[in-house]
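Researcher: Quick test of sequence recovery. C-alpha cells follow.
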C-alpha cells in the first residue's frame, strides 16, 4: 500500500510541476475479436456532457474499419449480440447500473438487391415509369429522407433497437417518448440515395422515458470513426514517422492539438456506435450530484458484448442461436488489451470481468511495451515493479478524491462526475498530463489523444519528471472534428465520396485537412 501511495503522490506532483504546455483503442486487438468483428468493441468513451454538465455521455463503438462504400449489405449491428454499458458506483468493480441494447433487423423490400435505395432526382423518379410499366407507377422508392414514414421507403434493411436500464435487481425498459420505434441510423450510402444525410442522421437522436427515468438520450448507427492513430507506424515496432520527430515530438508539434504530421490510418472509415446520455443522479450510489472532492462522485465504467454460446446458420433461417449469452469482449481503458496484455492471454482477458483483473497484474507491473520503447528510442524506463501505473486501475488521485476506497485492481474508465467539462477552446489532447482535468484518464473524450498519453505513461511519466519524454505518433486530432452536442460523434462518411488518407496525402491530415502527411 505504501508503494501505491507513493505512486499517487508522484502523479499528483507531476500534474502540479507540468502545467498545460508541458493505452489506443482496440481495433481487432485479440484473436477472438479479430474473427468476430460485430462483437469487437473498438473504443469506449465516458465524459461529462459538454452542453448538459448534469449528465454523463457514454459512447460504445463496435465493428472496426467499415468501408463506407462496401454494399450491398453494408454493416448493420448484429442482432445476436447483446451490447451493454456497465457502471460501478460503489468502488467494488461490480456493476451497479447497466444499460442493455439489442437490435432487430427487418428486410422491408426483399426483392431489392441492396439494403438502401432511392432514386433521388433521377429521370424516372419518383413516378415517371418507363414502358412497359404504367405511367405513374414508382419503380424505385424516392430518396431516403427519414427513418420512418413515407420518406423511409428506400430503407429496405431497417434496424430497430431496444434499451433497458438495470439498477440493482430492477430492470426498466426505456422507450421513445414520442411513442415510435427506435431506429438505427443507416450507413451514408451517397447523395443520390440520401441527399441530406446530416438531417437524416439527426433524426436518430431519441429522448427516452421509463418509470422513474427521464432526460436520457440515445443514438445508434453508423458514424465516422473518431479514433486517430498512425497504425502502420505503431505496429512496425513503434516506427513513428521521422516527420514527427522520429517518435519524439518537437515542442511545436506537441503543442498543436489540431494539426497532424503523420497519416491517420482510421480516416475515411466508419464504425457502428451506441451513444447514451444519462443524468448523473441515475448513476451515483445515492442518486445525487456530488462535487469533485466527494468520493461518491467518482464512478467506473466499461462496455461489453456478448452472444449466445451456439450459433447455427442454415437455410431458410440463416441464423439460429442457442444457449446462454457468453461475453466476447470488454473495454474500459483504451490500449490495455491491445498493447499491455500478451497475445496468449488476450482472449481470456476479453471474456473475464474487471473484478478479476489481478490475475493479469504481472503485465501491468512490467509491461513489455516499456522495454520496446527503451530498445527503439534508447530512453531510460522505470524499473519493475511498475507501481506508478496502479492509479490507472484503482480508484486513486488525481481522478478520485482523497477518501475514495481504492477497490480491487480492475480495468475500468474512472470518471469524476464532479469535474465540469472543459470548454472547447481550452481542451487539451493530452488530458490530465496537460493539466486538463476533464480529459483522459479522467474518463475519455473523443479528442483525447490516448495513443500519446498511453505511450508516455508506459514510458514512465507517472513515475517522475526524469521520464517525461514527448513520445507521439504525429496524429494529434481526428480527421473530422466531433460535434459539440449529443451524440458528439461526426456523421458517417459518404460511401460514394469518401477518401482514405495515405502517406503523402494532403486530404484529411489534421482537422479540416489543411496540413500535409509526410511519407517518412
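Model:
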Amino acid at each position: 500500500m505504501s508503494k501505491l501511495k507513493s505512486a499517487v503522490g508522484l502523479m499528483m506532483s507531476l500534474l502540479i510541476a507540468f502545467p498545460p504546455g508541458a493505452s489506443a483503442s482496440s481495433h481487432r486487438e485479440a484473436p477472438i475479436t479479430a474473427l468476430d468483428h460485430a462483437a469487437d468493441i473498438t473504443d469506449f468513451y465516458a465524459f461529462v456532457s459538454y452542453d448538459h454538465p448534469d449528465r454523463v455521455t457514454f459512447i460504445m463503438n463496435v465493428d472496426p474499419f467499415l468501408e463506407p462504400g462496401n454494399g450491398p449489405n453494408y454493416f448493420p449491428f448484429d442482432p445476436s449480440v447483446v451490447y451493454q454499458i456497465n457502471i460501478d458506483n460503489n468502488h467494488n468493480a461490480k456493476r451497479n447500473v447497466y444499460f442493455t441494447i439489442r437490435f432487430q433487423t427487418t428486410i422491408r423490400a426483399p426483392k431489392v438487391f441492396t439494403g438502401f435505395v432511392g432514386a433521388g432526382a433521377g429521370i424516372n423518379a419518383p413516378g415517371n415509369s418507363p414502358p412497359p410499366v404504367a405511367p405513374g407507377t414508382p419503380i424505385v422508392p424516392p430518396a431516403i429522407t427519414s427513418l420512418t414514414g413515407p420518406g423511409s421507403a428506400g430503407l429496405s434493411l431497417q434496424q430497430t433497437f431496444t434499451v433497458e436500464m438495470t439498477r440493482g435487481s430492477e430492470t426498466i425498459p426505456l422507450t421513445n417518448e414520442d411513442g415510435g420505434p427506435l431506429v438505427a441510423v443507416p450507413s451514408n450510402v451517397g447523395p443520390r440515395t440520401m441527399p441530406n444525410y446530416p438531417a437524416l442522421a439527426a433524426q436518430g437522436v431519441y429522448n427516452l422515458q421509463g418509470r422513474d427515468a427521464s432526460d436520457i438520450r440515445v443514438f445508434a448507427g453508423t458514424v465516422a470513426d473518431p479514433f486517430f492513430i498512425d497504425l502502420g507506424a505503431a505496429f512496425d515496432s513503434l516506427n513513428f514517422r521521422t516527420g514527427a520527430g522520429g517518435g519524439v515530438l518537437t515542442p511545436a508539434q506537441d503543442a498543436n492539438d489540431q494539426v497532424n504530421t503523420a497519416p491517420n490510418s482510421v480516416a475515411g472509415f466508419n464504425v457502428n456506435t451506441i451513444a447514451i446520455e444519462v443524468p448523473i443522479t441515475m448513476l451515483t450510489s445515492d442518486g445525487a450530484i456530488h462535487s469533485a472532492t466527494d468520493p461518491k462522485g467518482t464512478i467506473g465504467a466499461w462496455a461489453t458484448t456478448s452472444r449466445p454460446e451456439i450459433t447455427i446458420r442454415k437455410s431458410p433461417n440463416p441464423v439460429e442461436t442457442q444457449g446462454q449469452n457468453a461475453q466476447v469482449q470488454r473495454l474500459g481503458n483504451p490500449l490495455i488489451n491491445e498493447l499491455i496484455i500478451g497475445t496468449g492471454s488476450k482472449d481470456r482477458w476479453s471474456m473475464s470481468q474487471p473484478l478479476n483483473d489481478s490475475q493479469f497484474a504481472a503485465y501491468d507491473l512490467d509491461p513489455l511495451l516499456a522495454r520496446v520503447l527503451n530498445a527503439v528510442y534508447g530512453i531510460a524506463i522505470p524499473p519493475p515493479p511498475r507501481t506508478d501505473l496502479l492509479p490507472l486501475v484503482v480508484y486513486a488521485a488525481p481522478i478520485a478524491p482523497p477518501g475514495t476506497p481504492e477497490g480491487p485492481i480492475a480495468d475500468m474508465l474512472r470518471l469524476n462526475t464532479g469535474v465540469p467539462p472543459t470548454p472547447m477552446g481550452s481542451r487539451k489532447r493530452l488530458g490530465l498530463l496537460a493539466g486538463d482535468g476533464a480529459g483522459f484518464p479522467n474518463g475519455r473524450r473523443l479528442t483525447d489523444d490516448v495513443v500519446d498519453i498511453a505511450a508516455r505513461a508506459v514510458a514512465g511519466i507517472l513515475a517522475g519528471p526524469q521520464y517525461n519524454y514527448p513520445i507521439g505518433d504525429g496524429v494529434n486530432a481526428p480527421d473530422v472534428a466531433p460535434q459539440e452536442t449529443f451524440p458528439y460523434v461526426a456523421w458517417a462518411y459518404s460511401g460514394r465520396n469518401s477518401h482514405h488518407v495515405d502517406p503523402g496525402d494532403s486530404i484529411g491530415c489534421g482537422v479540416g485537412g489543411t496540413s500535409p502527411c509526410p511519407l517518412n
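The two ends are 46 Å apart (CA to CA).
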